[in-house]
Design a protein that fits this description.
twelve-stranded antiparallel sheet; single chain; about 55% strand; about 200 residues
Length: about 200
């Protein structure tokens, strides 16, 4: 997918484990307030940076200078569950090639013990299409359970995408099989301190 997007993030990231201990007992907080179902979490590309999608052999395939990731919480974390949400928006612009999100998917957040941070994974397929000059139309995505990045609590919180994406159906056969999406995104909503705790 495109260097930036996906997420979420999702994913993502919007909002969403690996290295996080268990897949339970995770809650996201805005200050002292636990985010419940229906809460929106937004992230935007960190100023002065860009998201990148690089073939696993090292060649840059796509770059985007602007990205917006919005997630709506569908399940607040509890002592037996993680925080999950639908990716409501995943938009990229200022890209090397036209880049479009075709499947927004879902994200899931897994608390990292001893920190206010979390591992973010895809809770459903997330996919983007890049219309390249060299390969034609290439679609890339992640499937449920794939780690897509790390959420670092703070004011503002940040989401660092670092995910291997695979070529999806509908891609031209010459498109690279896989690539790595990286980028740093800053929380814009809710404003103030956003962090993750064990619920």
């Amino acid at each position: 997918m495109k260097k930036l997007a996906l997420a979420l993030i999702a994913a993502a990231a919007v909002t969403a484990c690996v290295g996080a201990g268990t897949a339970s007992a995770t809650a996201v907080y805005s200050g002292a307030t636990k985010l419940g179902a229906g809460s929106l979490v937004d992230f935007s590309m960190k100023s002065g940076t860009s998201g990148e999608f690089v073939e696993t052999v090292g060649e840059l395939l796509d770059t985007c200078t602007t990205t917006t990731i919005k997630m709506k919480v569908t399940q607040a974390g509890s002592s037996t569950s993680t925080t999950t949400g639908n990716v409501e928006e995943l938009q990229q612009s200022g890209c090397t090639f036209p880049t479009t999100t075709v499947v927004r998917g879902k994200g899931e957040i897994h608390h990292i013990a001893g920190t206010t941070n979390a591992i973010v994974t895809a809770d459903a397929e997330i996919a983007v299409t890049i219309n390249t000059v060299f390969f034609g139309t290439c679609s890339y995505g992640v499937t449920a359970g794939t780690q897509i990045g790390t959420l670092t609590g703070g004011n503002p919180a940040t989401f660092d995408a670092n995910s291997v994406m695979e070529k999806m159906s509908g891609s031209n056969f010459v498109c690279p099989a896989t690539g790595i999406w990286t980028g740093t995104y800053v929380n814009t909503e809710p404003s103030g301190d956003l962090h993750v705790e064990e619920s």
